Amino acid sequence: MSRALPAVWPAGLFSFPCQGLLHVVSCKTVVVLQPVPCGSILWRRWWWFGRHLRLLAPRFSLERTHTVKIEHLAWNVEDPISVARWYVENLGFSIKRKIDAPPWIHFLADDSGKVMLELYGNTSIDVHGFGEIAAMALHLALVSADIEADMARLVAAGGTQDGEISTNDSGDRLGMVRDPWGFCLQLVQRTEPMI
Question: Which of 20, 58, 67, 151 has the most Cβ atoms closer than 10 angstroms to its Cβ?
Fold first, then answer.
């Protein structure tokens, strides 16, 4: 049984018939395999194009790639309600979901709404002493347009500056500040944005 073919192929896709199927491929992935009856008008139209495109096919990888996206990073804290409030008030995060009962889970999102932090207070497991972990061993990096102003604002809100503001070999400016519970936040001012 044949299926109707789309009127317009998405940009970047190539199509060619082979063994009774219309193969629709991109340079990375086989996207669609649709049956097309041999001998049909559509088959004859695609035959010449497909015959020549098949010669190019080995240049393309037909292996399907799988990707995942970061949804959230979670950490266990002693007072998730206070930590969440501080992050909302001082970092501009928003609460996407919260549970007003133990373990007091709070999902916080940055202004893009695409990446979240999960804060919770699970008393059945240990809370890490984040203040004892070196800044370069664990930190949450945040884009800053003005590191000095953001650093001063966060310190005034109860944070603690951890080292001096520095510039790396790429010209990016970096500053470390710990939240009132010791977790390290890195303020980043890139010469060229990475995201």
Answer: 151
